[in-house]
Amino acid sequence: MLSSSIIKLVGAPIEIGTSEPGAVMGPAALRTAGLVRMLQDLGHTVHDLGELSPDGTSGQRGLSAMRAWTTDISSVVETALAEGNLPIVVGGDHSLSLGSIDGALRHCARIGRPLFVLWLDAHADFNTLETSPSGNVHGMPLAALCGEPGFDALFEAEERPLLDPAQVHLFGLRSIDAGERTLVTRRQVNIVDMRTIDEFGVVAPLRRILDRVAAANGHLHASFDVDFLDPTLAPGVGTTVPGGATFREAHLIMEMLCDSGLVGSLDVVELNPFLDERGRSARVLVELVASLFGRRIIDRPTEVPPREV
């Protein structure tokens, strides 16, 4: 089980980072699909903080608006972690991770623990302003968090802790732009792409990641993008890429994360109800989060019981 049973849930209805409208409705769709009730039914205390709405950002799409979102999300996450709670940020496009991971970084810097990121996503999201073909910030958060140039305006002026790219694990990658391919190789970002998963399954690669985090006494931040899943399973996302994770693969990942007890913060991002089919993607996401937070068919024994003679 995850170490904290007190969850701070916050909605980040942000779509500044994408050109596809609709992600702003993601937090409401997840609540409608029963996210809070499910967590409570599993025995967790849930403090639903509602929806963030930074001052002066209504209808705004510039860097100042993005910075306001980043600052507010970072503050909520850092405060939740300092109180010993587990923050879940639901969105909203993937640019919200600028704030959630920044908050986790600040907390980890203060307590002296390394931060690791498990990026469950079809995309690397390691573009810079120079390499991005679209200019959409939801494809840039990891580059910004790892200290690539050009992103200082997105963060508070004070010195900020940077994410170590060698402690980023891209999992499920199947679409990467030419410029970011060069950059993730140069920065030694860890990659488990879909070919690796096809060849070896999810268990061995994920276990290596979890063993690494545990050995370092690290804080693991999991960021789950809907497009990690195959679009036949979860069509409600603006950046679909064929060949994603199956329902069973995704459940197994969540069950392993739960068993590890290492996840200290979570994002669920890029749900776009406007592109969904009768709430199908939202319901799938709630089921997967349930597995991460302890739902199981039967308790698995930690030791093999002695055989009766």
Give a structural overview.
The chain has ten helices and eight strands. It starts with 5 loop residues before the first strand and ends in a 17-residue tail after the last helix. The mean pLDDT is 92. It is globular and about 50 Å long. The longest helix is centred in the N-terminal third of the chain and has 20 residues. With 309 residues, the chain is an alpha/beta fold. Helix 3 crosses helix 4, helix 8 runs parallel beside helix 9 and helix 9 packs parallel to helix 10. Strands 2-1-3-8-7-4-5-6 form an eight-stranded parallel sheet, with helices on both faces.
Brief sketch in words of this structure:
This protein is 36% helix and 16% strand.
- Average pLDDT confidence is 92
Helix/strand/pairing category: alpha/beta
SS field, number of helical segments: 10
Distance between the termini: 33 Å
Write down the overall geometry: globular
- Please trace the helix and strand order, writing H or E for each element: EHHEHEHEHEHEHHEHEH
Strand content: 15-25%
* Percent range of helical residues: 25-40%
Total strand count, please? 8
The neighbouring-strand order within the major sheet is: 2-1-3-8-7-4-5-6
**Uncertain spans:** none
Tell me about the largest β-sheet: 8 strands, parallel
Rg, nearest Å:
18 Å
